[in-house]
Design a protein that fits this description.
This protein is 51% helix and 9% strand. It is α+β, with helices and mostly antiparallel strands and 465 residues long. Bound molecules: protoporphyrin IX containing FE. The site of protoporphyrin IX containing FE (HEM) has 23 residues, from α13 and α18.
Length: 465
C-alpha cells in the first residue's frame, strides 16, 4: 500500500489551528478551515459561526436531507445569494414548485440520444484543441492547465448547447470574469460565514456584478442568435430547452428565463468538468504508472485512429481515473442546504436557519468509508473491488432528485479528453510542490497550475477532420 500516490491536500488540523492557518493564508479557503474533526465525525456541529453548521457525513442522513420531499431543506441561502446575479432563479438554485417545473422541462435535453449527438461535437472540439496544443508544444511554452481545461470544456458546452465554437477572446474573457467572480463574491468571504445571521441579505461587490454582466452579455448574444432563427435551424441543447413546455400551462421559458437556464448549463457544465480535469492531469503528470496504464488501454481499444463513443465507453481504466479524481477533488466541494424550519436530523435538533453542510470533500476522504482515503487508487472503482464501495459515500454529482443533470455528459466528455490528450502529449507539471487545493465555487488550485506539454515521440495523429 505504501506505493500508492498521495496527491496534495491541506493537512487536517485542530479547529483553532485551522482557523489561524486560514487567517495566515489570507485567502479564506474553506478547505484549510476544515478541522480534523470534519474528516472523522459521522455527523456533528462545527463550532465557528453565528449560525449553527451541522456537518453531515453519514450516508443515511445525507440521503434523508437530499431526498426530503417536503422542501424543508432548500439550497443554502449563502450559495443562492452568490449565484443569483449570474444565473437568476434557475434550476441550480431554485426550490420547491419552481424547481420542479424547471427540472421537468430541462431533463429531456440530456437524454441518451442527445448524448450521442453531443459526442460528435465533443470530438470536433478536441480536434481543434489538439491543434492549439500542438502549437504550444512546438513553441515549448508553459501553459495554465486551469485556462486550458476551462477553454476546452467551455468550447464543448458552446458547441453542444449553442452549435457554435467558442471564440478565443470570448473564452479568455469568460475565464477572467469567472475567476473574479469566484474569488470575490461576498458569499465566499469567511467573515460572512462566521458572523452573518441566517438569511441576511448580502450586497455584492461592484466588480462581482460587473463580472456577471460580462458573462451574461456573451450568453445573451448566443441565446438571441437562437431566438431569432427559424425553429428548425438548430438541433442542440438550447433548441431543446427553447422548445420545452410546462406540462400544466403549455408555456415555454421567457427570454430572461432562457438566459438564466442556459447560463447555468454553460457555467455548471464547464467549470465543474474543467476543475476535475485539472486535477486528473496533475495526477497523471506526477504519477507515471497511471499515465502508462491509460495509454495502454487507449492503444488496446482504439489504436492510433479516431475514438468512437462506443470505444470510450469500454475504457474502464480511463473512467476510473476520472472517478478517482472526482473523489479526491470533487468539483462541487460542498453541497450546502439550509433548514427552512426547525427539524430533527438523526439525534440532532436543528434550528431554522442552520446550515447543513454535506461535504463530498470530507465524505470522499472519510476513513470509515474508504481504505487509504487520501491516496490515488482508481482500481477501487474496478468491477473486482466494487463490493468495497459504501453506498452513498460517493457523491460528486450529488444525489436524489437534484442529482446533476449533466453527469452522463461530463463523464463521457472527460473520458474522451483524457484518452485523446494522454495518447498525444506528455505533461510536465511545473512547481508541483507548491500546489494547494482550495474551495472556491469549485475545487481549484490556489494558484493556476502551470505545465508544459510535448508531443509524444510515438504520438499519433488522431485529428478526425
Ligand atoms: C464533473 C462535472 C460535474 C460535476 C462534478 C457536477 C456536480 C453537480 C452537483 C454536485 C450537483 C448537485 C448540487 C446540489 O444538489 O446542490 C449538480 C447539479 C447540476 N448540474 Fe452538474 N456537475 C458536473 C457537470 C455538469 C454538466 C456538464 C452540466 C450541464 C451541461 C451540469 C448541469 C447541472 C445542473 C443544471 C444542475 C442542477 C440540477 C438540479 O438542481 O435539478 N453539470 N452538478
Amino acid at each position: 500500500m505504501s506505493s500508492l500516490y498521495v496527491p496534495p491536500r491541506p493537512q487536517p488540523l485542530a479547529a483553532l489551528v485551522s482557523l489561524l492557518r486560514v487567517m495566515a493564508q489570507g485567502d479564506g479557503d474553506l478547505l484549510s478551515l476544515l478541522p480534523a474533526k470534519a474528516y472523522r465525525v459521522k455527523t456533528g456541529w462545527l463550532g465557528y459561526s453565528r449560525r449553527s453548521i451541522l456537518i453531515v457525513n453519514e450516508p443515511e442522513l445525507l440521503r434523508d436531507i437530499l431526498t426530503d420531499p417536503t422542501d424543508i431543506y432548500p439550497k443554502n441561502d449563502l450559495m443562492v445569494g452568490a449565484l443569483e446575479p449570474l444565473v437568476g432563479n434557475s434550476i441550480f438554485v431554485s426550490s420547491g414548485a419552481v424547481w420542479r417545473r424547471q427540472r421537468q422541462m430541462i431533463d429531456p435535453a440530456f437524454s441518451h440520444m442527445r448524448l450521442n449527438k453531443a459526442f460528435v461535437s465533443m470530438s470536433a472540439a478536441v480536434d481543434d484543441y489538439e491543434r492549439r496544443l500542438d502549437e504550444s508544444a512546438e513553441r515549448g511554452e508553459s501553459l495554465s492547465l486551469d485556462l486550458a481545461m476551462s477553454h476546452l470544456t467551455a468550447d464543448i458546452i458552446c458547441r453542444t448547447v449553442f452549435s457554435t465554437s467558442l471564440k478565443s477572446q470570448t473564452a479568455v474573457d469568460v475565464f477572467e470574469a469567472f475567476t473574479v467572480f469566484e474569488r470575490t463574491c461576498a458569499q465566499v468571504e469567511l467573515k460572512r460565514l462566521i458572523f452573518d445571521a441566517p438569511f441576511a441579505a448580502i450586497p455584492q461587490h461592484p466588480q462581482v456584478l460587473e463580472a456577471c454582466e460580462r458573462i451574461r452579455r456573451h450568453l445573451g448574444d448566443l441565446v438571441d442568435t437562437h431566438l431569432t432563427a427559424d425553429a428548425t435551424q438548430y438541433d442542440d441543447i438550447a433548441a431543446e430547452v427553447i422548445a420545452a413546455r410546462d406540462v400544466q400551462t403549455g408555456e415555454g421559458f421567457t427570454r430572461k428565463e432562457l438566459l438564466d437556464q442556459l447560463g447555468v448549463m454553460f457555467l455548471a457544465g464547464h467549470e465543474t468538468t474543467a476543475s476535475a480535469l485539472i486535477w486528473a492531469f496533475m495526477i497523471l503528470g506526477l504519477h507515471p504508472p497511471a499515465m502508462a496504464r491509460i495509454r495502454a488501454e487507449v492503444a488496446e481499444i482504439a489504436g492510433d485512429g479516431p475514438i468512437s463513443l462506443e470505444q470510450v465507453r469500454r475504457m474502464s481504466y480511463v473512467r476510473n481515473v476520472f472517478r478517482e479524481a472526482l473523489r479526491l477533488y470533487p468539483p462541487i466541494t460542498f453541497i450546502p442546504r439550509v433548514a427552512a424550519e426547525p427539524a430533527t436530523i438523526g439525534p440532532h435538533r436543528v434550528k431554522r436557519g442552520a446550515m447543513l453542510m454535506i461535504a463530498p470533500w470530507c465524505i470522499h476522504r472519510h476513513r470509515d468509508y474508504w481504505k487509504n482515503p487520501h491516496a490515488f487508487d482508481p482500481d477501487r472503482f474496478s468491477a473486482e473491488r466494487e463490493h468495497e464501495l459504501v453506498p452513498g459515500a460517493y457523491l460528486p454529482f450529488g444525489l436524489g432528485p437534484r442529482v446533476c443533470v449533466g453527469a452522463g455528459f461530463a463523464q463521457l466528455e472527460a473520458s474522451l479528453i483524457l484518452a485523446r490528450l494522454c495518447r498525444r502529449y506528455d505533461f510536465t507539471i511545473l512547481d508541483a510542490r507548491k500546489v494547494r487545493p482550495v474551495a472556491r465555487l469549485t475545487t481549484r488550485p490556489a494558484q493556476q497550475l502551470m505545465c508544459r506539454v510535448a508531443r509524444r515521440a510515438d504520438a499519433v495523429s488522431s485529428t478526425q477532420t
